[in-house]
């Protein structure tokens, strides 16, 4: 598909620009998502300023979860929109569906987070107008959003601008806010207060406008326009031929759940934000669009200096794809407030209701762990704040300890997994959401991430404050979750779903069993550590009870069933009975343009008869626990399972790329990397409709840095053993290991590592090597 067909193009010169060169309405949802802007506190979907059928205007503030009704689960509410700006030119509303569009370009600048749209439009009345729309979401002041419209005409025309704050937005039809008393201050400052329905969070939105003609600010009176759930203003002026009109719209968003109010009671926080928000908006109202953009750009520049991954590839899309992933990892994650998780669609769309999954710990967390450990710690603290809910869920299901829910939202919400997934396309019956009932590996995934964090940072303060309790309570859960099989004389885990969600209600899923065993092992290590800190041990014993836990964990772990490779084939069975399932010709499904096509022909019950996987499962295990599986065994399992995998989850191809890279299968590794990159950046118009795939953003970074770049931690040891694909001449990345800033440059001939800290030893292709302090080492 060419750019003229609506596909995305990369600006080949800079490696920083994504561009849509032709307007096609069927691609609107895709570009709204992938061009989304944000700063971790809030996210704004990139809906076009003027109205079109099928648009989705989304404004999310992290953590403001609300539940519409007791029969529903909480979701991140769509807050009042500030992006709407309508233009009426000589009596005709501007729309790219009428008149003639002579040129069109919409761009996202990944370097500074700005979007721009340029259109040359001939109106039905014959006037030619050159228009530029610019938007930025501030990284400097996370409460600010700013827009600018620049308009030049070749004929004298009357221009009417309508712009405001629109509270008529919904989450796919569900309204989550109650409108307060909207008003206008000083004839220009719009104030729109609203409150979430059940969570009762006060939201305060302000907006103001500034108009200039040929660089001179105009004092054009605003006609106030109001209707139900809408507060707007209308400006009318005549623009002469050759004149340039500039409209700037500054907006701010504050809520009673903001971090500065976290110590206050909800009512007091709501009262405070009502007053504070207006005062603060008045303090910034004099800033121009250029001022806001400049301040935000400085923060972005500092971010890229630390986090950029640079490469020289035959395909310039690769560079843009990696930066696109890093850009979204940055804007989806709250950098300061550890009460906030990361949604499966980030802050770019309504998909998955803004809930957090295992995606965070296994796919997203490693990026922050190695490039921004402070934020990585915040993500783990989020799981600590939700520990009480995990305990409650374990008790509800008849287990001990802490069982993390499959889907999480606000720290007090507990389990927010929906009861059903829609309709079974084969039977027509309601499809229950069994992941919430039996996909339990998320608990072990969180414990795995806690251990990763301590391993990479040595942060004992976090371990003592939060980490030990997570490790011990999750280990306790698994000790109660395993079942004794007296015939086999072993502990098993029955009735689960592993990462492969096409295989439902299986016994002894290899990934789950190995990660659960690791979790119990980490629990034992935590107890050993506590023996060295009697005061902390006593405190934790009083809080969660430690008596008998060591003996219980050791007894379970010693008899835990871990599926072993078949002696002849070397294949680790994905679960009990997997090797007895029939094979199915998957050619048509693997080559399908969209995912999930197999569910039109087979439901989950039917798929249990076939060797077919939605995503990496055993392959995922062999990536995370590489030290347990020799290279020849990993190769056999990769070659066995990959042809049986549909990659119908965005979590799949990046992991396959990493393992293929480890095995020296570079063409396949690169193909899988490209497939991961195309998940959001490919030509399919519906691929990102509900938002970008946040886990895949982390997966792309891992494929580049941990796969091709060869950075890995094995048995507590840092390893740097790169494998560049043939298309890449050079790869450069930065990361942090136990406080040491490291910079790695890889070419086809050599590896150069600059160590910005004290001497450390790393494992290389030549064996252990010491990296001298403040020096570059070449190997």
Described by its quaternary structure, the protein is single chain
Could you estimate the helical fraction of the residues in percent?
25-40%
Q: Assign the CATH superfamily of the domain at 35-306.
A: Glycoside hydrolase, family 65, N-terminal domain
Q: What is the SS-derived class?
A: alpha+beta
Q: Given the C-alpha coordinates, what overall shape results? A: globular
Q: What's the architecture of the domain at 35-306, going by CATH? A: Distorted Sandwich
How would a crystallographer describe the biggest sheet? 12 strands, antiparallel
Q: What radius of gyration results from the CA coordinates?
A: 27 Å
User: What distance separates the N and C termini?
Assistant: 42 Å
CATH topology of the domain at 35-306: Beta-galactosidase, Chain A, domain 5
Low-pLDDT stretches? 1-5
């Amino acid at each position: 598909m060419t750019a003229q067909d609506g596909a995305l193009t990369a600006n080949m010169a800079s490696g920083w620009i994504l561009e849509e060169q032709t307007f096609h309405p069927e691609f609107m949802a895709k570009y709204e998502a992938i061009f989304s802007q944000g700063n971790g506190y809030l996210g704004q979907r990139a809906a076009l300023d003027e109205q079109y059928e099928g648009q989705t205007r989304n404004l999310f503030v992290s953590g403001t979860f609300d539940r519409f009704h007791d029969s529903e689960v909480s979701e991140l509410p769509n807050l009042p929109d500030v992006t709407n700006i309508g233009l009426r030119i000589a009596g005709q509303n501007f729309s790219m569906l009428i008149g003639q569009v002579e040129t069109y370009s919409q761009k996202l600048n990944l370097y500074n987070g700005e979007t721009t749209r340029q259109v040359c439009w001939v109106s039905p009345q014959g006037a030619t107008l050159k228009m530029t729309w610019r938007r930025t979401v501030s990284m400097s002041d996370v409460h600010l959003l700013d827009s600018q419209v620049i308009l030049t005409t070749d004929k004298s025309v009357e221009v009417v601008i309508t712009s405001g704050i629109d509270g008529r937005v919904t989450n796919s039809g569900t309204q989550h806010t109650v409108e307060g008393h909207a008003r206008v201050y000083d004839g220009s400052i719009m104030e729109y207060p609203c409150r979430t329905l059940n969570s009762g969070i006060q939201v305060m939105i302000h907006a103001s406008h500034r108009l200039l003609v040929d660089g001179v600010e105009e004092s054009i009176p605003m006609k106030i326009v109001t209707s139900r759930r809408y507060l707007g203003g209308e400006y009318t002026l005549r623009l002469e031929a050759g004149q340039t009109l500039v409209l700037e719209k500054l907006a701010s968003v504050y809520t009673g759940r903001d971090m500065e109010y976290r110590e206050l009671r909800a009512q007091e926080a709501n009262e405070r934000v009502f007053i504070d928000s207006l005062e603060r908006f008045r303090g910034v109202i004099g800033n121009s669009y250029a001022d806001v953009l400049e301040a935000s750009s400085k923060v972005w520049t500092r971010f890229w200096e630390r986090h950029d991954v640079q490469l020289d590839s035959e395909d310039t899309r690769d560079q843009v794809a990696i930066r696109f992933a890093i850009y979204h990892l940055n804007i989806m994650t709250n950098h300061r407030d550890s009460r906030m998780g990361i949604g499966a669609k980030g802050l770019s769309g309504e998909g998955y209701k803004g809930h957090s999954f295992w995606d965070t710990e296994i796919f997203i967390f490693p990026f922050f762990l190695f490039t921004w450990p402070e934020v990585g710690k915040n993500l783990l603290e989020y799981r600590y704040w939700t520990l009480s809910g995990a305990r409650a869920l374990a008790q509800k299901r008849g287990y001990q300890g802490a069982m993390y829910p499959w889907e999480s939202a606000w720290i007090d919400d507990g389990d927010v997994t929906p009861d059903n997934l829609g309709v079974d396309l084969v039977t027509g019956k309601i499809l229950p959401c069994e992941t919430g009932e039996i996909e339990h590996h998320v608990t072990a995934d969180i414990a795995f991430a806690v251990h990763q964090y301590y391993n990479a940072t040595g942060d004992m303060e976090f371990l003592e404050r939060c980490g030990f309790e997570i490790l011990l309570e999750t280990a306790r859960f698994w000790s109660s979750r395993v079942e004794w099989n007296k015939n086999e004389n072993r502990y098993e885990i029955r009735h689960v779903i592993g990462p492969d969600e096409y295989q439902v209600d299986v016994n002894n899923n290899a990934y789950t069993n190995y990660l659960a065993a690791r979790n119990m092992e980490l629990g034992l290590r935590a107890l050993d550590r506590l023996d060295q800190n009697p005061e902390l041990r006593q405190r934790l014993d009083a809080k969660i009870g430690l008596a008998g836990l060591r003996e219980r964990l050791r007894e379970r772990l010693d008899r835990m069933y871990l599926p072993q490779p078949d002696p002849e084939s070397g294949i680790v069975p994905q679960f009990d009975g997997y090797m007895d399932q029939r094979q199915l010709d998957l050619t048509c499904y693997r080559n399908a343009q969209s995912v999930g096509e197999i569910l039109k022909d087979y439901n989950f019950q039917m798929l249990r008869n076939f060797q077919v996987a939605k995503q990496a499962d055993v392959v995922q295990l062999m990536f995370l626990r590489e030290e347990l599986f020799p290279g020849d065994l990993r190769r056999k399992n990769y070659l066995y399972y990959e042809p049986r995998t549909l990659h119908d989850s965005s979590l799949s191809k990046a992991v396959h790329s990493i393992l293929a890279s480890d095995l020296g299968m570079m063409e396949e590794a690169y193909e899988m990397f490209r497939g991961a990159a195309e998940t959001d950046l490919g030509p399919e118009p519906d691929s990102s409709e509900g938002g970008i795939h946040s886990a895949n953003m982390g997966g792309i970074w891992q494929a580049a840095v941990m796969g091709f770049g060869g950075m890995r931690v094995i048995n507590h040891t840092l390893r740097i053993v790169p494998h560049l694909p043939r298309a890449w001449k050079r790869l450069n990345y930065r990361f942090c290991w136990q406080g040491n800033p490291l910079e790695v440059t890889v070419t086809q001939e050599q590896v150069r590592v600059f160590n910005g800290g004290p001497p450390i030893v790393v494992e290389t292709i030549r064996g252990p090597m010491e990296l001298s302090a403040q020096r570059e080492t070449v190997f």
